[in-house]
Amino acid sequence: MRALAAVAFATALSACTPMEWVKPDAAAEQIRSDEQACRLAAAREASYNGYWYQHRMQPVIVGPGQVIWPSGAFVDPYGQQFLEENRLAQFCMESKGYQLQPVPQAQK
Questions:
Q1: What are 27-49's pLDDT values in tens digits?
Q2: What is the pLDDT of residue 29?
Q3: Is the dihedral of CA 18, 44, 70, 74 positive or negative?
Q4: Beta bridge partners of residue 102, listed in sequence order
Q5: Which of 1, 27, 62, 102 stands the most exposed, by the fewest C-beta atoms within 10 Å?
Q6: What count of other Cβ atoms lies within 10 Å of the Cβ of residue 26?
Q7: CB–CB of 17/93 below 8 Å?
Q8: Mean pLDDT of all residues in the chain?
Q9: Torsion of CA 52, 53, 57, 61, to 10 degrees
């Protein structure tokens, strides 16, 4: 049980680690410019697909505290397209030669 708690704690702690894109021969301004271009392209691409997942119906209220949301092939299971945007932006940055690495901590 203690081992499981230790693993859960380490996983939670590592999830809070700040990350940055790194490329050995790129200046800071170039990294920011590439990341912005990738984020804009990813948002544009994800919005093309997002149209088909829009809710075509409003939720149906059956009774007190009972709400039925529409489901089926034309409903986005996540409700938003941000997961697709992040996936596309990460693919774009990796295709330009960047790697996502933890931010080095300042030495005291």
A1: 999 999 999 999 999 988 887 76
A2: 96
A3: negative
A4: 19
A5: 1
A6: 16
A7: no
A8: 78
A9: 170
